[in-house]
Amino acid sequence: MIKAIVIDDELYAREELIDLLLDSGEIDVIGSCNNAIEGLKKINALKPDVIFLDIQMPQITGIEMLSMLDPDTMPKVVFVTAYDEYALKAFEDNAFDYLLKPVETCRLNKTIKRLKREYEAKDYSPLMSDMLELIPCTGHNRILLLRPEDIEVAYSDLSGVHILSTETKANTQLTLKVLEEKTPLIRCHRQYLVHPQAIREIKLLDNGLAEITTQYGYQVPVSRRYLKELKDRFGLS
Amino acid sequence: MELIFSLLQQLSVYLVIAYLLSKTPLFMPLTTVSGRLSQRFSCYVLFSLFCILGTYFGLNIEDAIANTRAIGAVMGGLLGGPIVGFAVGLTGGMHRYSMGGFTDVACAISTTAEGLLGGLLHSYYVRRGQVDQLYRPFIVFTITLVAEIIQMFIILIVAEPYDKALHLVSAIALPMVIANSLGAALFMSIIQDRKTIYEKYSAAFSSRALKIAQRSVGILSQGFNEESTKKIAKIVYEETGVGAVAITDRDKILAFIGIGDDHHLPGTPISSGYTRRSIDNCELVYADGHDMPYCCSLSNRCKLGSALVIPLVGGNNDVLGTIKLYEPKRKLFSTVNLTLGEGIAKLLSNQILTGRYEQQQILLTQAELRLLQAQVNPHFLFNALNTISAIIRRDPDKARQLIQHLSQFFRRNLKQNIETVTISEELQHVRSYLEIELARFSDRLNVEIIVPDELMRVNLPTFTLQPLVENAIKHGTSSLLENGQIIIRGYVFDNQLVLEVEDNAGTYQPVGEESGLGMKIVDKRLKNMFGQQYGLKMSSQPNVWTRATITLPEDKALQHNDINKIYVEANKQDHRNGENTA
């Protein structure tokens, strides 16, 4: 059975697609949600083989969500849309699989057949943007969309990836790797990213280590491996 | 005594020249004290000439000249100010000096002083804002009198030898003082006449032009046709007093009034070559009856002898038609009417254009209404069908309901020609719309409608609320991750009826967005119906709410008739009850 997650903001459309997928007998729908932020969480938690992804969704569209996924753990994607000329053309050009709403059963069956045949996820980079404009985060019972320039520090620990901004602390479903690639944040430690413009002070310690203090006062460790890069960057070596 | 008469004789010739000159445009600058450089300059030139003329017209006496030079100097100063006065006096004085005699220096000095004196009086009155005083002959008489007396003293003081000067002054003082003062006063009175005539003429002209403009306002806004042009022709005919007035379009006579209206009939094609020429070349054609004879092309018994044909020019220099003024053979065109004719043509052209513009505006509003109706359809229908398609297997009953709502929504949209509806009907329309949208956003949209019953019968333009609700969903709550909330409120505040559509997204962008068009149309239709102070306003607190507020007049909207009716019904009821008990 193929494990799938359905992400669509319209309840009835979501339910209908889930019904159709279950009817096929080939797909196990392990989760569903109504927006991209929930979607990221579900994907990270459930590790589906495939996601059925609606494009028109509030705040973060399906396409934007794609850029936030870690390419290493990228599931297969079947796009679902009612109308989006631009996106449809991109799907056609790159031979990405997509479904039109309302979903036709025979078209869906073809898609399922293809999913069974293909083992690897495609390279979705033609749809992805190089830089992210908003970073979805969850705070205390709320969802935040932070702009990368407001983020000072990102770090990971056992409980996930955390964001320290000028105003708040929050968690994000994005990996450090995605953040490093698609935001101005730079790596200073295996588990830490820092915004170069947020650095107020770099204190050099023994053993080739260092510690960064940000404008807002966060302390960030610098490992030996990244200190040289950091120095090079600021022309200090 | 003899000298007085001789001098007065000379003065007469001098004044005749002044009078003749006053008939020419040369005198125009003298009728106002504008203080402009051109006015000052013409004062200087003209009065310097008069100053010199005064010297030439003088009578030789005892190696000196009894003259009327002072008139030019004083007048120059009075009308041109101190600098001009000084310059005129100096010019006249230098000229006198060049002629020699024992009083040459004294005369030069005194003439300059007289010019300056006139100029100082000019400054005095200008500063006090009493420019009109300068034109009063009595004032001119007095100042010239003073000036001449001063001149006599200057001659006594400056001229050598003293006893010769004294003798001279005793001979010429009286004649010169009288002649100059009188002359200056008369000269000013000529200018004053000229001024009055000109002002009367322009007043008459303006009042006639204004009257035509005033009476013809709005007539042509109903269109450029026989009915409207007939009214215009009548107004022009009455106000100008010409023999006849005709208005044509490009092909035929639209209106004719006055002499010859027995054979110049509205509706007949244009036959006059002059009119054709005016239309084809877009030019004014004037057949004055002499150099260019006007001959009626319809009847040889026609009494009309001259015609002025002026094209009515619309935008892009298109000739829309002509207006024609006629005079009978025995009468000539007055210049006033010749000038007025062109003005009238311009006025009519503008009015025709305005009329067309207004008509287009009406068409545009109708088109906008259609647009508003059409705008909603494709996306909405598409989404609605998708939603129904998604529901139909799980919940066929719900799907059937939605199809009914959709059908209701479109039924109302098909009633294209209804201009106004009651709030109740409009809310019904909104509800049909909302049912579909609520199904689409079922788990994250909430709508509340709080409008009291007494407001339900109020009229407003069709499609006023629905676009606002649509906007609130499309650009507002649909961008929220959850808990979209739309509130439709109605209440009376500050003598206005207020309707609000509020969402909890606060994503309103003041400019741009194609949705702006829909909002603009809603606003415009409200303003058209109720007046400029009413309409639609958008307000927003970013990320908290966006509110579309509609205001309508309370009294007009609340339909007093209905309230009265209820009141009367109640009274009748009481009355009947009373009868019963009796």
TrEMBL record, chain A:
Modified residues (4-aspartylphosphate): D54
Taxonomy, superkingdom: Bacteria
Response regulatory domain: residues covered: 3-116
MF GO annotations: DNA binding; phosphorelay response regulator activity
InterPro entries (UniProt xref): CheY-like_superfamily, LytR-like, LytTR_DNA-bd_dom, Sig_transdc_resp-reg_receiver
Domain (HTH LytTR-type): residue spans on this chain: 135-236
Keywords from the named record: DNA-binding, Phosphoprotein, Transcription, Transcription regulation, Two-component regulatory system
Record keyword Transcription present: yes
SMART domains: LytTR (SM00850), REC (SM00448)
PANTHER family given in the database record: STAGE 0 SPORULATION PROTEIN A HOMOLOG, TRANSCRIPTIONAL REGULATOR-RELATED
Protein name, entry field: Two-component system response regulator YehT
